[in-house]
Recover the amino acids of this structure.
């Protein structure tokens, strides 16, 4: 992941796992695709409030502060602290944090919610001794015969190349299905994951689970030598569930990227779309946004590839394909930049690139453009929840709740459970609803959130709830995990400012 950042930038950063964990991030975490902003004054205030209140609440649960912050009650306490600093954006009652069992009961009532995360990544790190417990759970599943594929051999961490990803995605969160993808480079060694690795991860997780829990979004690289042949091989040999591209080309090395491309380029990109359509693959995810003011100054030639003025024509010309625009094209992730986005919105009712994306269906008369909120919901939510509310309001009003898809960009931000809880609890404030004509998001399990959390992603990938059986081996593992009293680590894996 660090390959996305320059050596000078890395000197100013540290791994997020090195800071004290909290139920929600208390400063902006970068997934490696952008240079993170400093911890703001408001974020410091949230941290101080949470620490103080946790010291008051933890004894009521018979816990020390650290253990309390790993619990459902600690998660609720984090959103109470957010409300005290930012205003009442999150639906949370103090009893959830202060009274034993209240938060646990709520969490249990929502645990079966259908959540399909179409934006996840795997981290290449050797598992530490703290994850030995997961290998023990896997061995117990073998002994009980829940997964015949485990055979008769004793299970160890050597069998768990994906153990931390599985733990964070499925044991520590309510996610039911996830899509795994990578990121390309002009230098083969700098790809985040090769397509073969993604296919292998899909095969291993689904064999382990005994159901379709992991989907694959393979990478395609328009313009690179041999890119069409790579698509043909991928379709024939690896059977992708969808394809994903980066229009700026080599996002790892923006300064030297050689093959940026536009989605509406009939001479290049359309050749790839034709292959997808012939193979019956309908979903094409495209990285857009996350292009800060600093990026624009440093890489001015790439801005035409990062924005979304090429999406509408491509969607109109290829009505049998669905274009999933990653990050909802949101760009402002640098120092003070969430405020830039919010100020623009408060003055004009628009948010650069996000509004452009939301207006594509009406301008071009298309219904095959979708907005993924991976990374940007997380970034906006912890920096300024009003910005997150505005972004969601724009997308839902322009595209419909049935065209916004759930993504978290995990596991860079750690287990996605905190993002799930943030979205369950977030509401667009009434003044924003009245002024801009936004509909409310509703309760955690109301129709808008149900659509975004899972129904849309499942529909796009032809997945019915019965295809991810809730009594599969992975569900049994989660039950064992809870029975053993194991808690989320609250670790994150991205980068933060020192």
């Amino acid at each position: 992941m660090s390959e996305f950042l320059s050596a000078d930038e890395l000197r100013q950063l540290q791994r997020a796992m090195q800071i004290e964990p909290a139920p929600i991030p208390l400063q902006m975490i970068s997934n490696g695709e952008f240079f993170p902003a400093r911890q703001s004054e408001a974020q410091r205030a949230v941290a101080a409030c949470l620490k103080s209140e946790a010291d008051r609440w933890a004894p009521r649960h018979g816990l020390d502060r650290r253990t309390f912050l790993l619990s459902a009650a600690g998660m609720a306490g984090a959103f109470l602290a957010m409300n005290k600093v930012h205003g009442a954006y999150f639906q949370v009652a103090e009893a959830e944090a202060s009274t034993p069992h209240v938060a646990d009961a709520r969490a249990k009532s929502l645990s079966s919610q259908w959540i399909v995360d179409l934006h996840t990544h795997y981290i290449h790190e050797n598992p530490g001794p703290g994850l030995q417990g997961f290998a023990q759970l896997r061995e117990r599943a073998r002994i009980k015969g829940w997964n015949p594929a485990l055979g008769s051999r004793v299970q160890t961490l050597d069998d768990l190349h994906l153990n931390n990803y599985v733990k964070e995605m499925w044991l520590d969160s309510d996610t039911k299905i996830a899509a795994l993808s990578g990121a390309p480079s002009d230098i083969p060694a700098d790809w985040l994951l090769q397509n073969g690795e993604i296919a292998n991860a899909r095969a291993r997780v689904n064999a382990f689970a005994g159901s379709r829990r992991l989907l694959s979004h393979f990478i395609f690289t328009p313009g690179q030598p041999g890119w069409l042949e790579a698509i043909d091989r991928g379709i024939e040999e690896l059977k992708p569930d969808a394809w994903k591209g980066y229009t700026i080309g080599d996002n790892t090395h923006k300064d030297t990227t050689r093959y940026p491309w536009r989605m509406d380029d009939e001479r290049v990109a359309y050749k790839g779309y034709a292959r997808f359509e012939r193979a019956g693959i309908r979903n094409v995810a495209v990285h857009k946004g996350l292009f800060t003011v600093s990026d624009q100054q440093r890489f001015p030639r790439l801005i035409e590839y990062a924005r979304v003025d090429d999406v509408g024509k491509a969607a109109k010309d290829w009505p049998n394909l669905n274009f999933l625009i990653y990050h909802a094209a949101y760009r402002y992730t640098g120092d003070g930049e969430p405020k830039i986005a919010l100020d623009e919105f408060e003055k004009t009712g628009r948010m650069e690139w996000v509004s452009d994306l939301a207006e594509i269906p009406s301008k071009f008369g298309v219904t095959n453009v979708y907005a993924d909120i991976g990374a940007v919901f997380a970034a906006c939510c912890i920096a300024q929840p009003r910005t997150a509310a505005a972004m969601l309001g724009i997308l839902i009003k322009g595209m419909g709740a049935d065209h916004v898809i759930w993504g978290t960009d995990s596991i860079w931000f750690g287990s996605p459970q905190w993002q799930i809880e943030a979205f369950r609890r977030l509401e667009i404030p009434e003044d924003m609803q009245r002024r801009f004509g936004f509909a409310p998001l509703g309760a955690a399990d109301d129709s808008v959130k149900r659509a975004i959390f899972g129904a849309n992603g499942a529909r796009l990938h032809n997945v019915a709830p019965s295809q991810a059986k809730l009594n599969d081996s992975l569900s049994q593992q989660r039950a064992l995990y809870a029975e053993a009293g194991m808690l989320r680590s609250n670790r994150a894996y991205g980068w933060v400012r020192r």
About this structure: Confidence is low (pLDDT under 50) at residues 125-138, 146-150, 153-161. Residues 2-111+493-497 form one domain. The beta strands are 13-15, 116-120, 177-180, 214-219, 242-246, 283-287, 322-326, 369-372, 404-405, 495-497. The two ends are 18 Å apart (CA to CA).
